Amino acid sequence: MKIFSHLTDFGYKRNWKEAIGFYLAYLVLTMIIGGLVAGLSSTFFFSETDDFAQGYEYGVKVGTWVAVIVSLLLVGVILQKKNLLRGFGYILLLLLSGILAFFAGGLVGLIPIAYLTTKPGGQSSAPKVPTLR
Q: Which residue has the higher pLDDT, 106 or 53?
């Protein structure tokens, strides 16, 4: 499907349908990673006598931090691939994504990232080398 094309090409300029596909794919990936990290780490920190509520609370905390880390990594890579790290507004978008992920998880934290994928890349900061003809 075209909606899920170029998922790992972080410099690619997406249309709004592709941005929704990017959002859904990385939301599912974030949920899987969060579940795996919470499940694996809970086996080391909880005994069989601990109740379900305590394990659930731990899973929510771990999932929140996984969402923050994934959001910050994704937005950082996208800004770097699109050469947009010099724009102050885009740095604020990076912080906004992390803050939203902290308070509302990946469900909301990935929205600014999906929006960012619709932006064209900036100019490269490397000097242009003249070519001989």
A: 106
